[in-house]
Write a structure and sequence with these properties.
Elements (H helix, E strand, L loop, with lengths): L2 H29 L1 H7 L6 H28 L3 H11 L5 H26 L5 H27 L3
């Protein structure tokens, strides 16, 4: 496969990512609605309080999972950026550099949406699991950032 064919293939693959991310952004914007809806549930009896509390926790889990998934998924783009920097048009290297910055910003931005909801979780084991996933993803971002800055790209 020649470079031109590969670049077209990458473009097609990245369009799929774009569509997935746009859908994810919409889901993220709506993900907190479950918490808000659960807050409106009745809380007169102990049973109502327990059901309301469970629905609120379920809402927070959803409000966390959506941006967590986006933040983790976006790191898949590093492989494409590396390939574009190596094989793509050298005049577009600054576009690749900006893409790398956008990947980093997307991870941090998505994780801010996770972090703001973590304190509302009652399940400390689940919270710890989420923090570990974010830490692992942040390490990928740090490694890739270091690699790209050291290579001058």
């Amino acid at each position: 496969m020649d470079v031109s064919d590969r670049m077209e293939e990458i473009q097609a693959e990245l369009v799929k990512y774009k569509d997935e991310f746009v859908d994810g952004i919409d889901k993220d914007a709506n993900s907190f609605n479950g918490v808000m809806d659960a807050m409106k549930l009745p809380k007169e009896t102990e049973e109502e309080k327990a059901a309301r509390s469970e629905k609120i926790q379920e809402g927070y889990r959803n409000a966390i999972e959506v941006p967590l998934g986006l933040g983790m998924k976006v790191t898949e783009l590093y492989d494409y950026a590396r390939e574009l920097a190596e094989k793509g048009n050298s005049n577009a290297i600054t576009d690749v550099a900006v893409a790398l910055l956008n990947i980093e910003a997307a991870v941090h931005g998505a994780f801010l949406n996770v972090i703001i909801n973590l304190n509302s979780l009652k399940d400390q084991d689940y919270r710890h699991e989420l923090e570990e996933k974010m830490d692992a993803t942040r390490k990928i971002v740090e490694k890739e950032s270091r690699r790209n800055y050291e290579s001058g790209r």
